[in-house]
From TrEMBL:
The name this protein goes by in its record: 1,2-phenylacetyl-CoA epoxidase, subunit A
Xref: Gene3D superfamilies: 1.20.1260.10
Cellular component terms per the entry's GO annotation: cytosol
Gene Ontology molecular-function annotations: phenylacetyl-CoA 1,2-epoxidase activity
Pfam families to which the protein is assigned, alphabetical: PaaA_PaaC
Keywords: Oxidoreductase
EC numbers, comma separated: 1.14.13.149
GO terms classed as biological process: phenylacetate catabolic process
Amino acid sequence: MYSQGLIGADGSTEETQDFLDAFQKRIDAEEKIEPNDAMPEGYRKTLVRQIGQHAHSEIVGMLPEGNWITRAPSLRRKAALLAKVQDEGGHGLYLYSAAETLGVSREQMTEELLSGKAKYSSIFNYPTLSWADIGIIGWLVDGAAIMNQIPLCRCSYGPYARAMIRVCKEESFHQRQGYEIVMYLARGTEAQREMVQDALNRWWWPSLMMFGPHDADSAHSEQSMEWKIKRFSNDALRQKFIDATVPQAEFLGLTLPDPDLKWNAEKGGYDHGDIDWEEFWRVVKGNGVMNRDRIKARKKAWDDGAWVREAALAHADKRAARKQAAE
Ligand code: BYC
């Protein structure tokens, strides 16, 4: 399976130029690659890395918002937030399943997350300090996620592309629930306006970092775009996000914390100030404010759930044994 026909008896892989050319031809013809198709090992590894990291982001992403479920200001807000956080759990599960079609197990992926080998989105290493953060996360973080994920619905790998279609539909509800919270606060009392402006000031730059390093520093973009895993570069998506978000902030009467943000008629988009890449890499390397807490929470959930996994396996074994005895 996976790279069948190319793996020798000794486990060595042989990828002839003819094979790589034929694979690229399928990609260029917009054919979907499916789990049992032969594929270059680099293509498989890139997908395992990206889909695994994406799945981890969804699951870790439940933590900052989950933190506010008990403190949501009304029953309506609590019900919507609960549904959103549950959706994120669901997204994580579709994505782990998509990655499993590439021959990696959920256990392996989880171990890589807990050991720090696999990454998850930098954005979830910032704390949620006020209720306004929940609105801003929906508006900006889910907004950025949609901008990045809509093109993934056309990813060349079938199971990932199909998972993303449903994910994007749900993300769009998430973005709207966030925007509605922000709109309410922005039209509220002075204290509410201050709270939401403060949240915007803290989340704006980390949201821009979600798209990853500048194209010139992006190790994987070129190859991923050639394989049509990614359809747009990191900078192109970041620019689309900024261009879509500036008018929304203006409508809300809120100020984006970037004095260099200004319309550039020539390029038909906004210019923006420098992103603090030192902060980005510090957070990605595990030294953000919340990194340790996030991994600790995931480790506890994994350890606490061990008995459930064992019980489910024991039950499956018993059923199989009963079925065999009855035959
Ligand atoms: N955080 O070569 P590059 C969500 C890493 S939203 C951490 O450009 P690539 C949600 C990158 O992994 C978030 N690490 O990489 C929303 C690579 O390191 P490795 C999840 C980052 O893969 C609301 C290195 O930097 N979305 O789920 O071509 C609520 C060089 O980067 C980040 C996805 O995961 C970052 N921000 O492009 C709940 C979308 N950026 O792996 C949940 C799928 C870069 O070599 N992923 N790195 O060690 C993607 O589209 C791409 O992986 C990225 C990065 C655009 C993120």
